[in-house]
Design a protein that fits this description.
By secondary structure, the chain is mostly helical. It contains 2 helices and no strands.
Length: 53
């Protein structure tokens, strides 16, 4: 269920939020064994979950 008090974000804002989260995924690994696509997919999931709260 969507929180009626949450504010919708623009596609551009969502993209930036995902990019930032993906960066932090890679940073936590010390940018070693990087898989940018996997980082992006995980970041998308995180951002989408946060937006639904």
């Amino acid at each position: 269920m969507t929180n009626p008090d949450s504010k919708a974000v623009s596609p551009e804002q969502r993209h930036l939020m995902i990019a930032e989260a993906a960066y932090y995924h890679a940073e936590r690994r010390g940018f070693q064994e990087s898989d940018p696509i996997a980082d992006w997919v995980e970041a998308e999931k995180e951002v989408d979950v946060k937006q639904r709260q």
